[in-house]
User: What shape does this take?
Amino acid sequence: MSNRMLAIVKSNPQKGISVKEIPIPEPAKGELLVKVKLASICGTDINIYDWNSWAKLHIEPPIVVGHEIVGEVVKINGQNPNKIKVGDLVSSETHIYCGKCQQCKIGNKHICENMQLFGIGRNGGFAEYATIPIRTTWKNDKRIPLEAMSSQEPLGNAVHVVKTADVKGKSVLVTGLGPTGLCAVAVAKAYGAKKVIALNRGEYRRKLGRKMGADEVFAELPGKYSNKVDVVLEMSGNENAIQTALEAVRIAGTMIVFGIPKQEVALDLGKYFIDKELTVKGVFGRKIWDTWFEVSKLLTSGKVDLTKMITHKFKLKDFEKAMQVMKSGECGKILLVP
Ligand SMILES: [Zn+2]
Ligand SMILES: [Zn+2]
Assistant: This one.
C-alpha cells in the first residue's frame, strides 16, 4: 500500500474544511491502526466546519476530523486486554478517558476529568486510516449491519438518555429530531414507552421520526399536552423547544437534558422546577462500556434498526457536498465511504 491517504482535515482556524492527502499514521504504543470502512457525520462536525465558539474552544488545527467510524484492524501496537485481533471490525468511543482521575476510578469514565476527544482534540476517522487507543476501541458484533456500526455513538447517547429517564409505560416527548433525537425515539419505544411524541420544526425529520417509531409528530406541540407528559427527552438545545418541554412535562415528571444550547437559556425555576417538583438530569455521552453493550443488544436483536435513518452516502472526497446536505437538515444519518 502507498503510505499516503485521503483525509478530511480542519487545517485552519476558520470556516470550512479541506480534503487532503496526508501520511498514513503509525499507531503509537497503546494504539491500533484501522482501515476505515464507513464513517458517519455528527452534529459536532457541523460545529467544527462552521468554526463556531464551541469549535474554537475545543480544536487546535490542523486535525483530522470525524469520530463516528467503523474500521478493520490492520495493526496493533501494545498491550491488548480486550483481545482485539487484526481483521476485527471496531468502532471508537469518542471520549478518550484517562483512567486515572476520580471519575474514571468510580466508574464514570464518560465524564473523565481529563477527557480527550477523538476527531476533536486528536486526529479522528474521516480518513482512509485512523489510529485509536486500544483502551477506547469497541469490538463490533459481526451480526450488526456494517452500515449501522458507525452510528453506535449517537445511538449510545440515546440509550444513556432513555435509561436515565426510566420510560417504561410512560408517555415520552422527544424534543428535536436530529440523529440522536431520532435514535431516542426508537430507544424509548424499545424500552417500553407507552407513547412517544416527537417535536421537530423541519418536516423531513418529522417523517423520519415516524419511521423510527414515534406515535405522533408535531412541528408545534398542541396545547392538550400542557402538563400531561410523564417524561421529556430534550435533544435539541433549542430555547423554544426547552420552554415547550417545560410546559408539557407533568407535575413530578422527569426531564432529561441532552441537547447543548448555543447560548445561555433563561429558565423560570419557580414555575417549572419547583412548583412541578421536576426531576431534571443532564446527560453527557455514553457510559463506557455499559451503554455499548446495551447498544449491541438493541442492534443484534433488531429492536432498533439504525439503517432506517441512514438517508445518504457520499464518497469521502465529496465531504463538502455531504456537509451541505447535513447542514440543510434534510437528512438522517449521512455515511462517508473512504
Ligand atoms: Zn457524534
Ligand atoms: Zn479520567
